Amino acid sequence: MKITWLGHASFRIEIEDQVLLIDPWLGGNPLFPEECEGEATAGATAILVTHGHGDHAAEVPALAADLGVPVCGIYDLMSHWAEKHGTEVTGFNKGGTIRLGEVAVTMVNAVHSSSMPGPHGPVYAGAEAGYMIAGEGHTIYVSGDTDIMADMGWMGEYHKPDIGILAAGGHFTMDMKRAAFAAKKYFDFKTVIPCHYRTFPLLEQKADALRAGLPGVNVIEPEVLEPIVI
Fold first, then answer.
1. Is 70 contained in some domain?
2. What pLDDT shows up at residue 69?
3. pTM as predicted
4. What does the alpha-carbon distance between residue 188 and residue 225 come to, in Å, rounded to a whole number?
């Protein structure tokens, strides 16, 4: 398995027979070199979207069309893209599980908001979500943009993820201390990868507090386009 950070909350995950792009924000992402888009998206088989905000979803319909791959996410947003852009989609909802080849993807709850720009301000884009991605004997929890929530208790107990990709930059999501608290209280991660940080000065720039709060856990601060092999 290879997990590659593409900056902000964007990831490329190579697992089983799939190459999954998570919330790909490549053009305009301050941490991503746009000339490397081909490298980041090569061989992609599907795109997963956690919610409708521009730093997660703005480029997805165009990117999916360019790559010729389906987009998977919350039913409301997928239905909108299918109608407006002709995007090939799989719309599902929290608690639902879809199969992407040999990989099982379950949508789980998140606590955030989800909207897109409209002519008179933000418009509804379906609910925010996270994912449990299972394959190769591992389960990856992609938190999406969220705060700590009590749902993490049953999610950790039921899905037993050993890898956590946690939005932890603060201001819009959990910060590093809150992410460490959630990981320690609700999960038994072997590996934790922070994201949604370093992108802007407003967000946290280091994961020191996350690492300090999770002794015995392999906390990996990712570097853009450098695969983490698990």
1. yes
2. 98
3. 0.97
4. 27
